[in-house]
């Protein structure tokens, strides 16, 4: 079974969705650790209560991004993860960090990329007057919010929406698509093909079928 490490900064509801999928037998991964860059992240307590190793590495205790990223990578690598999952992680990561985890670093972003990379996506979607908004799971590359797309979900934008109602509608979809994307990774079904993600057909469980001879 593959090992994953989840990085959070706050509430951790996407992390909870992954834990719930695992508990329901729908996500065959070992959640080796949850790490936050914010000591006060509510998700740390949620993880600990679920029996998952929970650490924080306070980015404010470091002189710069490179030294924080080095400490973060050292902590992550102690768990030997096959996949690192950014779940509401709010620090931009340096090129060196991203290259170290190339092909095994995923993020969920609260917009339909390539629209609205960066922060405050729901506010910006409302300001632009778009009628369709959503969320994206992608592999992380050094260019912020531009890596290969794994799965997206779309939601309508209603006239009655404010930032909070729109964020809530998107978040419910995040909780569906993130476990799905991580499950595909766990099943070894994601392939990169010239910057595009391909999904392999469901594989048999590795057994060799020995059929009776046909006479
Ligand atoms: N790092 C790289 N190199 N590439 C990506 O695609 C990344 C990444 C790090 C995080 C998540 C991303 C999102 O989904 C993510 C993707 C933080 C910021 C940001 O501006 C932007 C995008 C994302 C995460 N952070 C501020 C910073 O200075 C801090 C903001 C805060 O602490 O509230 O790092 O949206
Ligand atoms: C989620 O909506 C996630 O997509 C977004 O923050 C929220 C975290 O919620 N991520 C970013 O904005 C990354 N910059 P959660 O902590 O409850 O999962």
Identify the quaternary structure here: single chain
CATH topology of the largest domain: Rossmann fold
Strand order of the largest sheet: 3-2-1-4-5-6-7
Q: Compute the separation of the termini in Å.
A: 40 Å
Overall pLDDT confidence: 95
Low-pLDDT regions: none
Number of domains: 2
CATH homologous superfamily of the largest domain?
Formyl transferase, N-terminal domain
Any idea what the radius of gyration is? Answer: 19 Å
The major beta sheet can be summarized as:
7 strands, mixed
Instruction: Describe the global form.
Output: globular
What compounds sit in this structure? Answer: ligand NHR, glycinamide ribonucleotide
Task: Specify the CATH class of the largest domain.
Answer: Alpha Beta
Q: Would you count the extended β strands for me?
A: 9
What CATH architecture of the largest domain would you give?
A: 3-Layer(aba) Sandwich
SSE-based structural type: alpha/beta
Strand-residue proportion = 15-25%
Order of helices and strands: EHEHEHEHEHEEHEE
Total of DSSP H or I helical runs spanning 4+ residues: 6
């Amino acid at each position: 079974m593959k090992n994953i490490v989840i990085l959070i900064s706050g509430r951790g509801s996407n992390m909870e969705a992954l834990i719930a999928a695992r508990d329901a037998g729908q996500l065959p991964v070992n959640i080796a650790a949850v790490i936050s860059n914010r000591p006060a992240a509510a998700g740390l307590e949620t993880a600990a209560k679920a029996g998952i190793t929970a650490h924080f590495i306070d980015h404010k205790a470091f002189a710069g991004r490179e030294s924080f990223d080095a400490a973060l990578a050292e902590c992550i690598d102690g768990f030997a993860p096959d996949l690192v999952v950014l779940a509401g992680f709010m620090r931009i990561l340096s090129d060196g960090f991203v290259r170290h985890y190339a092909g095994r670093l995923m993020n969920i972003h609260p917009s339909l990329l390539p629209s609205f990379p960066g922060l405050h996506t729901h506010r910006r979607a409302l300001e632009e007057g778009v009628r369709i908004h959503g969320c994206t799971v992608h592999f992380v590359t050094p260019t912020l919010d531009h890596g290969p797309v794994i799965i997206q979900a779309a939601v309508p934008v209603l006239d009655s929406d404010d930032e909070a109602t729109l964020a809530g509608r998107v978040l419910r979809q995040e909780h569906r698509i993130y476990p799905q994307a991580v499950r595909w990774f766990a099943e070894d079904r994601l392939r990169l093909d010239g910057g595009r993600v391909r999904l392999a057909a469901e594989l048999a469980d590795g057994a060799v079928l020995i059929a009776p001879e046909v006479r």
